[in-house]
Amino acid sequence: MIGRLNHVAIAVPDLEAATATYRDTLGAAVSQPLELPEHGVTVVFVELPNTKIELLHPLGDGSPITGFLEKNASGGIHHVCYEVDDILAARDRLKADGARVLGDGEPKTGAHGKPVLFLHPKDFAGTLVELEQV
Amino acid sequence: MIGRLNHVAIAVPDLEAATATYRDTLGAAVSQPLELPEHGVTVVFVELPNTKIELLHPLGDGSPITGFLEKNASGGIHHVCYEVDDILAARDRLKADGARVLGDGEPKTGAHGKPVLFLHPKDFAGTLVELEQV
Does B77 touch chain A (CB under 8 A)? Predict the structure, then answer.
């Protein structure tokens, strides 16, 4: 069912410093910061030949990554995102298998303008999993 | 400097259950478990079209992931691995930038039989980074 690894998201306490680390120290191509107020984050995309790393920093009040950064002051890997062809079919299969979909179970429009869902970490080896329909 | 994302490693408390989750619930192709006593882990490879997920479980005494699983009882993302062309050149550039290389700074033979190094999470946005020469 799952296809490509779309991205790995890393929550960071200092977006400028993390961007410099990936650009200057690791020598990767990085984007300009992109504010996504509807998702409560500012994101910098690190472009690798086969996938992306997304550096996430809280934006505004009630950002979904604030709690994570309180627990992980230096930052850390926040989630992985796998691509699916049909997000509703994927959701229904997962629910039939007993996996928990976060929120109300309806896909939202993700950071790339495509439908996404998040799955409960306890059902996926302690890992927050995003599914994105591509 | 860094190239492809070689893999994302997820430490799991129950390798059979995590393998079943990726195979049956997420519908991915998974390998048989492979014991790597010299690395203190048993690994299952999840093959995605563009990269791999590696499910790691402790093997033997003093496994390098035992402490991580004590802190993350449900499992969690342990590290990311980026490919480099020349690991000694990469190491020297990183050290010149002030980044800390773990251990004695000499590459070891990694789980894929290739030279690897690990970098200090505090220097890389809270993320344990493995470099693998390909």
Answer: yes
